[in-house]
Design brief:
This protein has two domains: about 180 residues, MOFRL domain (glycerate kinase, domain 1); about 240 residues, Glycerate kinase, MOFRL-like N-terminal domain (Rossmann fold, 3-Layer(aba) Sandwich). The protein is built from 16 helices and 15 strands. The longest helix has 21 residues.
């Protein structure tokens, strides 16, 4: 066991964790991603390795959606000016909208009426594009709920929300949730690309999904779908979802009436390209650099992506304990997301749940844990996440909280807010999944 930390050391570790996270957000921003990968000079637009002569197209239409919908539109407009116009769907309307773009405030994590309106407007605009047009899609996390239209008009908005709620609270990883979303949607799983055919298409991605499954981003509206209707039936059975769905959704499963989504051999993708400009890897790299500058020995371990929060907490804490036997001070960084199966939840999200689970396991240890979402939002709370350390349990009890009860009720936010350890930065206009930063000495 290491010697007890002084109060100044404890504060320094919490400050260091917060600084590393904030620096990662700054360096992995949409603006910096576009500076590196999206440039326009004299009407020639470069997107990673592709070049597009914007003057050669009869029209350039931009469809930007997700939590980074506005920041991506703003970054593109800074490059191309008035050469492109289009539609933006985002959960938070900016103070100043980009000229030439129509805005919709879609819902997240549940769709709202404007989510439906945004989808309808996008489909109308895309279906009007000829082969001589260029459609620039800009996709980011959260797009699954921010832009939505059920594949069956019998599914009302209330039924759609009930379906989403069942999926989000099921404990299933995002790729499985999105497999079902794709097949229930008129815009997901390649169906926006289908609407835009035969126009030239390029998708610019700010990704909040694993690098191996890019079509899970915003439920893949512009990409060939790697999932199938058969997968949907398997996932529904695996998580016992059918009885949780409203009748209008359930009816699509019971007679096996789910329509298949377009696959990689579909002609609608013959004039399509997809490029990632930011991902969770970008945030991990930025956090690692920040930690190294703060004199930590850095290790990265993403093994626990999509694990349950409790299993991930045990794994990462054991990992950092082993590392500090060899290095001091040490920083263990983990990207991706953990899962939480919520039952009658309070206020919080997966990051605060993970941090509180860690707090129970590191009482009186010289370990500091930060877990937060790069979008600035954690579950149904105003926080992005939280910081926990060896003093968290004692301070929480002194403040009148029962940490075990808070954990059992998925009600971590009030506890962390009271301690001053909730990370409240507001929506970032970006979404690159979560970061977990564990510091030890």
């Amino acid at each position: 066991m290491t010697a007890p930390a002084s109060e100044s050391q404890i504060h320094a570790m919490r400050d260091a964790a917060r600084s590393i996270f904030l620096e990662a957000l700054s360096q992995a921003s949409v603006v910096k991603g576009f500076e590196r990968h999206v440039q326009c000079e004299r009407g020639i637009l470069r997107v990673r390795e592709d070049l597009y002569d914007l003057h050669a197209y009869s029209k350039v239409l931009v469809i930007s959606l997700g939590k980074a919908g506005h920041t991506m539109a703003e970054a593109l407009a800074a490059q191309v000016g008035s050469l492109a116009q289009g539609i933006v769907a985002t959960p938070v309307l900016p103070d100043a909208q980009v000229h030439g773009f129509r805005y919709f405030r879609g819902g997240h994590p549940m769709p709202n009426a404007e989510s439906i309106q945004a989808a309808a407007a996008m489909l109308r605009a895309l279906e009007a594009q000829p082969a001589s047009a260029l459609v620039i899609f800009m996709l980011s996390g959260g797009g699954s709920s921010i832009v939505e239209k059920p594949i069956d008009d019998e599914i009302s908005l209330d039924d759609l929300i009930a379906t989403y709620r069942a999926l989000v609270h099921s404990g299933a990883p995002i790729a499985e949730i999105n497999a079902i979303r794709k097949h229930l949607s008129a815009v997901k799983g390649g169906r926006l690309a289908q609407a835009a055919f035969p126009a030239q298409q390029v998708s610019i991605l700010v990704s909040d999904v694993p690098d191996s499954t890019p079509d899970a981003l915003a439920s893949g509206p512009t990409m060939p779908d790697s999932t199938s209707a058969e997968d949907c039936h398997r996932i529904v059975e695996k998580y016992d979802l059918l009885k949780q769905f409203p009748p209008s959704t359930r009816e699509l499963f019971e007679p096996c009436a789910i329509e298949e989504t377009p696959k990689s051999d579909d002609p609608v993708f013959h004039k399509s390209r997809w490029w990632t400009v930011l991902s969770n890897h970008s945030a991990i790299e930025a956090a690692s650099s920040a930690a190294e500058r703060a004199a930590f020995v850095v290790h990265v371990d993403n093994s626990c992506d999509d694990w349950s929060y409790a299993k991930a907490a045990d794994f990462l804490l054991n990992r950092v304990r082993e590392l500090r036997k060899q290095f001091s001070p040490v920083c263990l960084i983990s990207g991706g997301e953990v899962t939480v199966k919520v039952v009658n939840g309070g206020i919080g999200g997966r990051n605060q749940q993970f941090a509180l689970a860690c707090a129970e396991r590191i009482a009186d240890e010289n370990i500091t844990v930060l877990s937060a979402g790069t979008d600035g939002v954690d579950g149904n709370s105003p926080a992005a996440g939280a910081i926990a350390d060896g003093t968290t349990l004692a301070r929480a009890r002194q403040a009148g909280f029962d940490p075990t009860t808070a954990l059992d009720k998925f009600d971590a936010y009030p506890l962390f807010r009271s301690l001053g350890d909730a990370i409240e930065i507001g929506p970032t206009g970006n979404n690159l999944r979560d970061l977990r930063i564990l510091l030890a000495y």
